[in-house]
Every structure is written in C-alpha cells, then in structure tokens.
Design goal:
Elements lengths: L12 E5 L10 E2 L2 H8 L6 H17 L5 E5 L2 H4 L4 H4 L5 H7 L8 H14 L8 E6 L5 E6 L2 E5 L21 H10 L3 H10 L2 H6 L5 H9 L3 H25 L4 E5 H6 L1 H8 L21 E2 L8 E4 L4 H13 L1
Helix pairs in contact: 7-8, 10-11, 11-13
The protein binds adenosine monophosphate.
C-alpha cells in the first residue's frame, strides 16, 4: 500500500512469540543466545516456534541491522504466577527434568486488557483484583492481582482450561486412553480429535463459530444451545475459582472475538454471579467490539468489555525495550 517506502524506515520489529517456556519471563532484544534458547522451546509449541524462527530469520535477512524484539505470550504469566498455581500434581521430577508446568497463553492480551482495566479503576495497579476473560476461538482466563498474574487457565499447552472452538479444554485425562481403546486409534490420532474436532464444534456438530451456534440455537437446534451453555457454565466456574484465588474481585473484563461480540455468552456467564451483587446492565450489554462498562452503576463489581489490541501491546513492548 506504499506505507513503507524503504526497509530503512522500519526502526524495530516486534515479534509475537507463542511460547517462551521457562526461559523468557519478559520481552527481550534478539541476540544469537536468545535465538538458541528459542530453539529449545520448539517442543512446547512445535508448529508455532518453527514459524516464529522463520519469521525472525526472514526479518534478519531483509533488515540485518534493525533491532528485533521478541514478545512472549507466556511471559505475563510466567513472570509472576506463584509455584502453587503452576506446579502440576504429578511427580516433581516431571517439573524439574522436563519442565512440565503451567505456562499459560494469550499473555499479551491479558496484559493489555488488564492494563486498560486498571486505568478504568483509577490508574493504580496496587490493590486491584481483576479477572480477564479472553474468549475467542481459543479461550483463556487470568486472575490479575496488583497488575500481576496469579493464575491462568491455559496450561503447559493451550489445550487446558475453557471449552474452545475445537479444543476440549479441561477433561478427565483417562478419556484419552479410553478413546484410544474404544476407537482403536493411536494416542496421536486421539489428540487430533481432542484438538480439532472437540469443543463447541464437537458438542454441537454444527460449527466452532459462535455466530453459527447462536443462529442454530435460535432455530431450535438443541445441541448448538447445549454447546453454548457448556461454554458459559465452565467460563463462570473459572471466574468463580479466580475470585477465590484472589480473595475478591474488583472487575471482570471480556475481550477477544467472542468476549467483545457475543451478548448471549456474556449474559449467561454473568447470571451466575447475582449472589455476589454483580448486576448486568442489559442495555449496555448490547454492544459489540467497543470499550464499555456493562455492569450497572450499583453493581458491586465493575464488568467491562475491553477490545484487545495485541499488536499495539507488542509495539509498546518493542519501543520500551529500545529506550
Ligand atoms: P477470535 O478467535 O478472537 O477471532 O474469536 C472468534 C470467535 O469470536 C468466533 O466464535 C466468532 O463467532 C466470534 N466473533 C468474532 N467476531 C464476531 C462478531 N462481529 N459478532 C459475533 N461474534 C463474533
């Protein structure tokens, strides 16, 4: 489009990196050592890490002198999550030897919307308790206390946690073995089913897209209705558990494709919190894709829709690192 006339105009490149493993708890300037460590994250996110490295090498070839910054989707979580939230209840050896632990995902989005929410709450992170709900095709929830993550729903990989478009989220792990036997499939084949054919797509048999599910529900499709109900119910259970994790809550934030746009899900989720004095302003909740407080003025907890902006957050991180 002519917005960049020469590569020399680009002063820095910010890369979104899905998994920084235990190596990166903050954004970093690219060096040979950093690239070598990123290679070690391949096992944790094989598809993404390979693509990231190709992107980095492409930028290095086109702009060898331009600084490159890596911004990790795990960093906001791994920087502050306490060990009792990230250690899994398996042999401790698995953590020490194989780095099996919770890392979380969507950290750049959780950081951005919790930061915007802190502005809404008065601007001081200290003393704030926020639950951020990044609900999209992939969904995750974080508990952010004093501006720092204390727990998050995605795990070692983005399979854990909420029900997603095509991923199962939390589930009895024995089902994996049971399905392998029952369907006469390999472990890898069962994992493909749980990754690509489960979630709301699997329950509804209709679609992974909530627009299709809403339409089918309105036309009387019971399984589409059930899929949305399972999604909302499990989301509410996570919010409840994170309120317990923080011993309170000042604000709940909805973001990403679904959180920003799906009126039905927001209402179904918030219906579980009447006992806490959270009241939804049904008229305000009719919005899509814009920042708005959707709780009533007398609600005990502020509920807000805050559109995420991961690109802007990455640009800010990049500029901050160059200074
Ligand atoms: P994401 O992965 O963040 O792009 O979110 C994808 C999900 O958001 C899909 O289930 C869509 O149904 C939903 N979504 C995205 N845009 C809209 C919209 N304008 N209206 C309703 N739902 C939307």
């Amino acid at each position: 489009y002519g917005s960049v006339k020469s590569m020399d105009e680009i002063e820095a490149v910010g890369h979104r990196i899905v998994h920084g493993g235990a190596y990166f708890s903050e954004s970093v300037l690219l060096t040979d050592e950093v690239l070598a460590k990123l290679e070690l994250c391949r096992d944790l996110a094989p598809l993404h890490t390979g693509a990231h490295i190709m992107g980095i090498q492409g930028c290095l070839a086109a702009m060898p002198k331009t600084p490159q910054v890596l911004v990790f989707d795990t960093a906001f979580h791994t920087a502050s999550m306490p060990d009792y939230a990230y250690v899994y209840p398996v042999s401790y050896d698995m953590y020490e030897k194989y780095a099996v632990r919770r890392y979380g995902a969507h950290g750049t989005s959780h950081r951005y919307v919790s930061g915007e929410c802190i502005k809404l709450l008065g601007g001081k992170a200290e003393g704030t308790k926020i639950v951020t709900c990044h609900l999209g095709n992939g969904s995750s929830i974080s508990a952010v206390k004093n501006g720092k993550v204390v727990d998050t729903s995605m795990g070692m990989t983005p399979m854990e946690g909420l029900v997603m478009g095509t991923r199962c989220g939390d589930m009895d792990p024995t089902i994996v073995e049971y399905l392998a036997h029952s369907l006469n499939k390999s472990l890898e084949e069962v994992m493909v089913i749980l990754n690509k054919k489960s979630g709301v797509l699997g329950i509804s048999g209709v679609s992974s897209d909530f627009r299709d599910l809403d339409k089918a529900s309105n036309e009387g499709n019971e399984r589409a209705k059930l899929a949305v109900e399972v999604f909302s119910y499990r989301t509410a259970k996570y919010i409840g558990s994170y309120i317990a994790a923080m011993n309170g809550v000042d604000a709940i934030v909805f973001t990403a494709g679904l959180g920003e746009n799906n009126i039905v899900v927001r209402e179904q989720v918030l219906n579980h919190f009447g006992y806490m004095g959270i009241t939804l302003d049904k008229e305000a909740n009719q919005i899509r894709g814009e920042e708005k407080i959707i709780s009533t003025p007398d609600s005990k907890v502020t509920v807000a829709v805050i559109p995420t902006n991961e690109e802007l957050a990455i640009a800010h991180e990049t500029v901050a690192l160059l200074k």
